Structure formats: C-alpha cells, structure tokens
Amino acid sequence: MSSKLPNGTTGYKLTKEDLRQINIRNLIGFQAGWNYERMQHSGYLWIILPQLRKIYGDDTPELKKAAQTHCGPFFNTSNFLNTIITGIDLAIEETDGVNGLEAVAGLKTGLMGPLASIGDSIFGSLLPTIFGALAANMAIAGNPLGIFIWVAVNIVVDWFRCKQTHMAYEQGMKLVTTMSDKLNAITDAATVMGVFMVGALVATNVGIVIDAVPVIGGVPVNLQGICNNICPKLVPAALVGFVYWLLGRKGMTSTKAIFIVLVISIALGALGIIAKG
C-alpha cells in the first residue's frame, strides 16, 4: 500500500479495534525491550507498529522515518500513564503524518518525565502501599478477602491504563485541530508537577548518609549532622545532582553513569566515608 496524501499517510483512521490492540500490547509487552541505553523506546514502537503500518502503508519511506523517530531518542515514562502519550501521538500522526513527527518527538520528550513522576508515585508506590498493606494484614488475620481486594485494585488500574488510550486519542484529535495552542501549557503544567514529585522521590527513596566522623583538633565532627542542619536530605540531593551533571557530559550514557556511581559508592563505602541511610 503506497502513501497517497501529501502528509505521507494513507488516510487511514484508527478504530476501536486498533486502540484495543494497542492496549493489549501495552499490558503485555511495553517493557519487553527495556534497556539501559534508551529504555522503553523499542517497546513503545512495538505497541503502535501495526497502526503505523496502516497510517503510512507497509514498507514505505514514511513508515521507516516514523519508526526511526520513535526508536531514535531516549524514552522512559510510567507504565501506568504511557498511553496518554501514545494516544496523542497517534492522533497527531494520523492527522499530520510525517509533518507531525517533530511535534511528536517534542511531545514525548516533554511529557515522559512528568508522567513518570506522577504515575510511579501514585500507581507504583501509593496504591500498592495502601492496598497491599490492607490485603497483607487481612491475610495475616486469616481473612481471604484481602486477596480479592488486591486483585480488584489491579484490575481497576489496568482498566484505567486502557481507558486513557481512548481519552488521549480523542483529546489528541482536538489538540491538533482546535486546541494546539494549549499543548505547551499542558506540558508546562505537567512538568512543574513532575518536578515536585521528583523532589519528593529523591528525599524518600535515595538513602545515603555520610558515615565518616573526622576528628579535628581532638573534636569529632559530625559531617552528616552539619549537612542536615544546612538542608535535610542534602546528601541524596547532591548525589542526584551529580548524576544529572554526568548525564550532561559529552559521550556519557545512563549505563556509564550507573557504573560510575557504583564504583564510587563501593569505594567510599569500603573506606567508611558513606553508608546506607
């Protein structure tokens, strides 16, 4: 099937069956291609590849360009909110074709971080903590209802993951027609929320303290206490800042950054300078 329209598309419009296929693939295979270099980029492409073939035609230059766009950059976001990006993405590509690929790349880059922070915090931490503890306590007490509560919560979460694909696709059609001027505002608002969530995650999930207590002039100096007086969780924040700085260096990858942090942590831990908080 060859492309017939100026934007490189076949004119195909996605159906409910297409969105259903995307949801099934998302539930079973979004993380299948995860790697340290680009994380979820191949899984994202695999989810929407059948629809891209329908939009651009099979084995066409436009399809290859779209695939390269999705597989090129680093991509990592929440498993629970990723189809928000997917739905808007397909709405844009269905309407603008290859002319909208640059906007799609910007959309993925702008929303993946905020949605990762919000989605993982709520669905990856908050809900499992609350309902997991409830189900566990009921199980300890010999009440089998706990397992049904846990299963029900996960069913609702998966239903929400599927439902948001339809919502985002429909909203995406409005974004590319009558609401395109509001897309930047939505992205900025989500980014601000994501920054707050990332700050909270750093304070609660990064556990590292200064264990060394040097003696100066016969007086032991509590370096960790000094850091706490300056700013609580200063050491974890400094570690995250260091990793952020590393990733901005030329030729640096996430894999290299991880190994650098591992080596430094093992060395400083062995010398008794730092410890797990």
Automatic annotation (TrEMBL):
One of its GO terms (biological process) is phosphoenolpyruvate-dependent sugar phosphotransferase system. Coiled coil: none annotated. Keywords: Membrane, Transmembrane, Transmembrane helix. The chain crosses the membrane at residues 145-162, 223-245, 257-275. InterPro entries: GatZ_KbaZ_carbometab, PTS_IID_man. GO terms for cellular component: plasma membrane. PANTHER family: N-ACETYLGALACTOSAMINE PERMEASE II COMPONENT-RELATED, PHOSPHOTRANSFERASE SYSTEM SUGAR-SPECIFIC EIID COMPONENT. This is PTS system mannose/fructose/sorbose family IID component. It comes from Collinsella stercoris DSM 13279. The lineage of its organism: Bacteria, Bacillati, Actinomycetota, Coriobacteriia, Coriobacteriales.
